[in-house]
Every structure is written in structure tokens, then in C-alpha cells.
Amino acid sequence: MVAAPAIVLDGLTKRYGALTAVDDLDLEVASGETLALLGPNGAGKTTTIECCEGYRVPDAGTVRVLGLDPRREADALMPRIGVMLQDGGVYPMARPLEVLELFAAFHADPLDPRGLLERVGLGQVRDTRYRDLSGGQQQRLSLALAVVGRPELVFLDEPTAGLDVAARRDTWAHITELKQAGVTVVLTTHLLDEAEQLADRVAIVDRGRLIAAGTPAELTHRDGASVGVEFSVQAELDLAALSAAVGAAVHRVRPGTYRIEAANDPSLIAALARWLEAEDVLLGRLQAGKRSLEEVFLQLTAEAGDPDRADEAVAP
Fold first, then answer.
1. Are strands 19-29 and 81-84 parallel, antiparallel or unpaired?
2. Where are the domains of the chain?
3. Among candidates 208, 123, 198, 200, which has minimal Cα distance to 159?
4. How many alpha carbons fall within 13 Å on the CB side of residue 271?
5. What is the pTM (predicted TM-score) of this model?
6. CATH code for 7-220?
């Protein structure tokens, strides 16, 4: 049997006065799936998540989370979900262990609070007041609070914001463990590499509407094979000369990063290498065969802002 979707949004609409934050949004999240919800600031991500959590009342449409209405059936739903907020909402004088033990007491079969604190790297600060924790430590405590009740579904809002590289990787590992345990994960993030690393599927929203959805591979290959070659160097290049050498248009993506608009081909890579050697320019990074998720995101959100091109911004 196929498991029922963990989340079903049908025509979800939410307005704040004259502003439509979420506009007739249809979206499903499969049971056990990790979905990254992406979009520019003000795109409607947080409002969408808050409607799923029962904190906002939709103006139109329906929301079902684990088969339940988040508002009318909140008592049945809340023990089954975990919520990680960017602003942890913890009393400043509280200590991590006592807060986690309190949250654990709300659940029938919680994880061991002491073991969980060790798992998220907070064992040595378990008796430190919340206000004295670093931003990254507060973020890790928020993650622990979200998962202590063994939820079926977890909402993670910017789960690695403020974390250093090592802590970020540890958080990625913890999210991967949730996925392996069959937990449905919905995360919002501004880090496109994070979405590409963790998500089974990505949904991009802008101006309250869904403009693309698919696996990272589907989105980064959405325009077929001629997706270009991107490379980085520590130099400013003569684009006209390089274009002539490789026989294709070259443009600068951002300082130090360039893109050749041509299909990935061994002769193209060889021509690029020969030109860089002649110019005594060291190649830093080379990516061929697909666009990055960041490029796709920027293109789609730019198209969504242009009514004349809106139809082109729908995922295959």
C-alpha cells in the first residue's frame, strides 16, 4: 500500500490586509520525504509553514497534515509533529537540560534528553542559561526540542542558521538520520547547497505561488543537455578572447565565476584548458553537465517577477 501524503495543501490562500502572502497554493509532501521549501524573502514560505503547523488560519483552501486539520484537530496533531523555529522562544534563564526534560515530559515515548543533548553537541553546556548560549548553540537546542518527542513530521526553519561549518555538517547528518528513520522533514533554507544536499524534492515559491517543484536533479537539468560549463578562477578574464577561443559565448556569473553557454563536450573543456594555460590562469573549480540549483532558483524567481514569462517558470 502507498502511504498517504504527509501534507496536502489545496488552494491555500492567506492574506494580511491587502497583501496576499500565499496565493492559491497546491502542494503535496509525501510520507517520509524531505522537502526543501525555497523562495526569496517575503515569498510566503513562513506563512505556508505556519498554516501547516496550525498557527495561522487560511483565508481559503484546505490544509491537511498527517490527515488532520491543523486547527480543528490540533490536540491530535501536535504530539505527532516537531517544530524548530529560528527564534527558539526559550525562557532566557532556562537551562538546556531542564528545557529538554520539560518538552520530553509532554510525549509518551520521548528520546533521552541527556543523550540527545550529547548528540547535538550541547552536553557540556547542559546547565548553562539559554541567554548565555551562542547563537549556534541556541539553534542546536531548537533542533533537539523539535525531535525529542520522536515526531512523524518535523518542520525545520533555517536549521543551520548561525552554525559553523562543523556544526552545520553535524546538523545535516542528524537530518539525514531523521530521513532514514522514515520521518517526514520540511525545511526552509536560504542555503541552496543545503537544499541540494538534503532534499528529496524542492519546491520554489515566489509571491505566494508555487513556481517550480521537483527533485534537485530534475530542476538542474530542466533545460536539457545544453546547460553550459561553469568554472571559477582568481582572475578577471577577457571574455571576448575566451569566447573566440572556445567557440561559444562566455559570461561572468559573479566575480571570479564564469559560464560558457554550450553543451558539455571534451573539445570544449580542452579548449578552455589550453586558453587558461596560455594566459597563465589557474583553474579553481569546474562544473559541467548541469546548472547549479542556485542558478535555477535565480532564473525561476526572476521569471516569476515578469508576468510575460510566468508560464515558462513552471517545472516540467
1. unpaired
2. 7-220, 229-288
3. 198
4. 17
5. 0.79
6. 3.40.50.300
C-alpha cell at 238: 577577457
Cell of 19: 497583501
Buried b (16+ CB within 10 A) or exposed e, 281-315: eeeeeebbebbbbbbbbebbbebbeeeeeeeebeb
End-to-end CA distance of the chain: 27
Question: What are 237-265's pLDDT values in tens digits?
Answer: 999 999 999 999 998 888 899 989 887 78
Q: What are the tens digits of pLDDT across the range 136-168?
A: 899 999 999 999 999 999 999 889 987 888 889
| 146 vs 112: CA distance, rounded Å | 13
- Tally of CB atoms within 10 A around 80: 15
In DSSP terms, 5 is beta-bridged to: none
d(CA 46, CA 60): 17
- CA-based R_g, the chain, Å: 23
**3-class SS at 62?**
strand
Integer Cα distance of 186 and 311 in angstroms: 26
In sequence order, what are the beta bridge partners of 22?
14
